[in-house]
Design goal:
With 306 residues, the chain is α+β, with helices and mostly antiparallel strands. Helices cover 54% and strands 22% of the residues. The chain has helices at 2-37, 45-62, 64-81, 84-90, 95-98, 100-137, 245-251, 263-272, 278-305; strands at residues 142-146, 149-156, 159-168, 174-183, 195-207, 210-220, 232-240. Strands 1-2-3-4-5-6-7 form a 7-stranded antiparallel β-sheet. Helix 1 packs across helix 2 (45-62), helix 3 runs parallel beside helix 9 and helix 6 (100-137) packs across helix 9. The protein is elongated. The mean pLDDT is 82.
């Protein structure tokens, strides 16, 4: 038992060392990239460092299999140089049995990565995207799906527009039972703009650069007026939009941006809204298999080097 604990600690230290080295390397590379990307925007070094720290967990999570392989190789080389494996064999223990403890640590690392590191990566990735887009454009186009329907947000120099639809087609380019709230752009000191108008439509279709609305009623929401008295109705109405079908599709984002614990309910909401959730379902099953995958990598390396 003492020998197992010793080898387990050695492997944990090897993994932590390799993980730290990759964190430093990836952070330095990403720092140079973020400085290049933000050079044309009013972003200081502290804000760039914040972006680097927010983006680092996602990069490390993606290369976790590589880190596991290198940590296993580093452990085996270290044990071979110190002849500790030779001593263990001379004491009557098989090399593979001796290395059961490191394999157990690899499995635990995989479980912790999925259960704890995955939600951290999802949270920091979402925050990184929001902050990065905020620095570059002051707003971003987003899409979310909930039990109450489909939610979109389009942003631009003219302000933000929040869009809610009861249902949509699979591409989210045709919306039904639509409500849109337009907001004024941010003020010079970053203060939020107030609502400008409310639009309700029975149907909305995304075309090049605009939403084409049918059966429309528009309420102005400026201070000092009666919205219902000033309301307008239109059979057809065109609302400018920066959204495209590609942007809407990309707004679903990488499934890795959703915590693994929330994926089942998110998949159910996507299917209820009429969207394909195959990509998210595949990612969910991959995450469930990640601990066994990392364990298999460690086993393969140990068997190959033994």
């Amino acid at each position: 038992m003492i020998l197992h604990a010793y080898f387990a600690r050695r492997f944990a230290r090897s993994f932590a060392m390799v993980f730290g080295i990759f964190f430093l390397l990836s952070s330095m590379i990403d720092l140079a990239e973020q400085v290049r990307r933000m050079s044309s925007y009013d972003v200081n070094l502290g804000q760039v460092l914040g972006l680097v720290l927010l983006n680092a967990p996602r990069g490390l999570y993606e290369i976790l299999p590589l880190i596991m392989i290198l940590a296993t190789v580093a452990l085996f080389i270290s044990l071979s140089r110190s002849s500790e494996l030779v001593v263990a064999r001379a004491a009557g223990r098989s090399a593979l049995k001796t290395l059961l403890a490191p394999l157990g640590v690899a499995l635990v690392i995989g479980i912790v990565a999925v259960a704890m590191f995955n939600p951290i990566v999802a949270s920091t990735s979402k925050r990184y995207n929001d902050v990065s887009e905020g620095y570059r454009s002051g707003g971003r186009d987003t899409l979310s799906v909930s039990a109450e329907g489909l939610w979109l947000r389009q942003g631009g120099d003219e302000g933000q527009t929040v869009i809610r639809a009861a249902r949509s087609n699979p591409q989210a380019t045709e919306l039904y039972d639509v409500t849109m709230i337009s907001y004024a752009p941010l003020g010079p000191n970053g203060e939020e703009g107030g609502p400008l108008r409310r639009i309700e439509a029975g149907h909305a279709q995304l075309v090049q650069g605009a939403w084409e609305l049918d059966n429309v009623k528009i309420w102005p929401l400026a201070n000092g007026i009666n919205p219902e008295a000033e309301a307008e109705t239109h059979v057809h109405y065109s609302l400018p939009s920066t959204l495209t079908e590609e942007r809407i599709r990309d707004s679903f984002g990488d499934p890795s941006a959703i915590p693994v614990w929330e994926l089942p309910s998110y998949i159910a909401q996507l299917e209820q809204a009429g969207f394909s959730a195959r990509r998210h379902a595949v990612w969910f099953n991959m995450e469930l298999a990640r601990p066994l995958f990392l364990l298999a990598l460690a086993v393969a390396v140990l068997v190959a080097l033994n």
